[in-house]
Specification:
The protein contains eight helices and seven strands; from the N terminus they run βαβαβαβαβαβαααβ. By secondary structure, the chain is of the alpha/beta class. A seven-stranded parallel β-sheet has the order 3-2-1-4-5-6-7, sandwiched between helices. The longest helix has 29 residues, at 106-134. The relative contact order is 0.14. The structure holds NADP nicotinamide-adenine-dinucleotide phosphate (NAP).
């Protein structure tokens, strides 16, 4: 589905970035993986190459516009174009969750809003500048249901996800006339990722639930009465990046399995 597409992934050493990278590689994409620290990204790239795919790794801070620009320049030099930009950057939940809003330090509240919005804005527009020349491309990111529903003790994370969803629509409004699609994925929690365990820890005490009870609680809110897998998210990321999804832009794919109505 992605044969010979040139894809850049930010945060590719993370749970979602790595799963999307592997799924893109299986579908024939030529991958340029990046992350804040090189070793985890290199490990994913090596796995992909060992499985017969095409992948390179680079250390790129997705909050550093010059670094993002320089890396994209090198991708253009190597591959001639960029077809897919996927921002899977995430910051540790332990830094942002667990404090009631009335007690939350202002800087701590603003941290996720600034980091998530800045990183997505910069990586998206840097890719778009290159995609415009080809009148083709797909810009993607990940959000969470916190964008659309009230959840206690999540600090600035909900506003951060809402900002990314609004930016997805606005980018699309400007870029779709140039042939560029912009699509977000809003998955349910995937308990196999360390992120979800980290999100639970600060709330364990307040909720009085065990890790198993918390997963059951989240699952009970879905129509399927289960949480989703990384593979299910990655499959949707493949479809949305492919030309088969040419009718989708300016929107977020609701993968909350019924937890959140459209
Ligand atoms: N996991 C889930 O179930 C789930 C569900 C819904 C939404 N989400 C959202 O999806 C996103 C990714 O989640 P995840 O589970 O894949 O998180 P993750 O495993 O923590 O991965 C995030 C990755 O982003 C990298 N990163 C952080 N700052 C960066 C920067 N400035 N430049 C480049 N890379 C940077 C991290 O690198 P370091 O390790 O070096 O910091 C890490 O590899 C987050 O926004 C998360 O909230 C996750």
């Amino acid at each position: 589905m992605l044969k010979d597409k040139v894809a850049v992934i930010y945060g590719a050493g993370g749970a979602i970035g790595a799963a999307v990278a592997r799924a893109y590689a299986r579908e024939g994409a030529n991958l340029f993986l990046t992350g804040r620290r090189l070793p985890p990204v290199e490990a994913v790239a090596k796995d992909i190459v060992a499985a017969g795919g095409s992948s390179e790794a680079a250390e790129v801070d997705a909050l550093d516009e010059q670094a993002v620009d320089k890396h994209l320049e090198s991708v253009i030099d190597r591959a001639g174009r960029i077809d897919i930009s996927f921002n899977a950057v995430g910051i540790p939940n332990t830094k942002i969750l667990g404090v009631p809003l009335v007690d939350l330090d202002v800087e701590q509240f603003l941290l996720p809003i600034a980091i998530y919005a800045k990183s997505y804005f910069m990586t998206a527009r840097m890719a778009a500048r290159r995609m415009v020349a080809n009148r083709s491309g797909v810009i993607m990111t990940v959000t969470a249901l916190h964008s659309r529903t009230g959840i206690p003790l999540v600090g600035g994370y909900g506003p951060a996800m809402a900002a990314k969803e609004a930016l997805t629509r606005d980018l699309s409004a400007e870029l779709a006339p140039h042939g560029i699609r912009v699509v977000g994925l809003r998955p349910q929690a995937m308990p196999e990722t360390p992120t979800i365990k980290d999100a639970f820890e600060p709330r364990a005490m307040a909720s009085g639930m065990t890790w198993e009870q918390w997963q059951e609680f989240l699952a009970s809110k879905t129509h399927a009465r289960r949480l989703m897998s990384l593979d299910e998210l990655a499959q949707m990321a493949v479809f949305m990046a492919s030309d088969r999804a040419s009718g989708m832009t300016g929107t977020i794919v609701n993968l909350t399995m019924g937890s959140l109505d459209d």
